[in-house]
Design a protein that fits this description.
Its cofactor is Fe(2+). The protein contains six helices and 14 strands. By secondary structure, it is an alpha+beta fold. It has one domain: Jelly Rolls. Strands 1, 2, 3, 4, 7, 10, 12 and 14 form an eight-stranded antiparallel sheet that branches. A four-stranded antiparallel sheet has the order 5-11-8-9, with no helix packed on it.
Length: 298
């Protein structure tokens, strides 16, 4: 039996979020000058409320359904790892492509609170979708996400005008493996790609002395469920193991400014038709999410 692929819908398919014009969304949800300045200085902006509790509950329910490998939409994932670490004592569920499967995870791409902030943090540019991710760390034996820069996985697209938003579906704490940032590391050069569920400190061992000292200033991003944190594609970040009695579930939306192009002739995502090198990223799998109103600062 075939399963409906929601990537054919370049607009919300439910009433999960209010239908607002670009102007209405901007007026209601735009970030302050102080928030924008913090992002540019430190490379991240956390504690941005993105979801109401009923929306969190819907996404938790959808996540519980699609983590079953027997779910009828499983073939639509770009990647599906029940445990990317391979260690039963350090479980990290990680997937890409769930926006194609359930209405809630599809429609969060167009969440007005998200798209307005993303546009501002990209310099008031039009925003296109890149890909999504799910990360789930079960209670007591949840694994790590190693220190890394997101763009080290994305060099097949360019130029660097990307943005990541991590949103918790559980309260995120140090105890259950919340995200950690190295403030200011977005000004470093591109570093080598690491194994995402491998050695937590694999990247650290290859840094110079000044970069290693920056880890003394790492920041734990503890937030309630439904809150998000945005970060620059070169910002070094990771998350530690979950040994608490509480799960740590989260989803990630990765976007880029309209005009980003493919740097390769191969597939950019598993099962997605190749975008020729030099061609603009657009179409079914990279939909336009938001164009800022004319009165937004340029």
């Amino acid at each position: 039996m075939s399963y409906r692929d929601l990537s054919f819908d370049a607009a919300p398919v439910s009433r999960m979020f209010p239908a607002l014009s670009a102007e209405e969304a901007w007026d209601r949800y735009h970030l302050s000058d102080e928030q924008l300045a913090f992002f540019h200085e430190h490379g991240y902006l956390s504690h941005v409320k993105l979801l109401e509790q009923e929306q969190v509950k819907q996404l938790r329910d959808e996540l519980a359904a699609i983590t079953d490998p027997q779910h009828p939409g499983n073939a639509l994932f770009y990647e599906f790892h029940s445990n990317e670490s391979g260690d039963p004592d350090a479980v990290l569920f990680h997937s890409l492509g769930h926006w194609r499967i359930t209405p809630g995870f599809h429609d969060v791409l167009w969440n007005p609170r998200f798209v307005v902030a993303a546009s501002q943090l990209l310099g008031n540019r039009a925003v296109r979708f890149w890909h999504d991710q799910l990360f789930s760390k079960p209670a007591r034996h949840g694994g790590v996400v190693a220190w890394h820069q997101d763009y080290s996985y994305w060099t097949r697209t360019g130029p660097i005008q990307h943005l990541t938003c991590w949103t918790g579906l559980d309260e995120a704490t140090v105890a259950n493996g919340c995200l950690h940032y190295i403030p200011g590391s977005h000004r470093w050069n591109l570093l080598d790609k690491t194994a995402l569920a491998g050695d937590m400190d694999g990247l650290y061992q290859h840094l110079d002395a000044d970069q290693q000292r920056a880890f003394d200033r790492k920041v734990a991003i503890e937030m309630p469920a439904g809150y998000g944190t945005f970060h620059h594609p070169l910002l070094v970040h990771g998350s530690y193991a979950n040994r608490s009695e509480h799960s740590r579930r989260a989803f990630v939306l990765n976007v880029f400014a309209d005009g980003t192009r493919s740097n390769v002739n191969e597939q950019l995502l598993q099962g997605v038709p190749a975008v020729p090198e030099g061609a603009k990223m657009d179409g079914q799998f990279f939909p336009l999410l938001y164009t800022p109103p004319a009165f937004a600062p340029a």
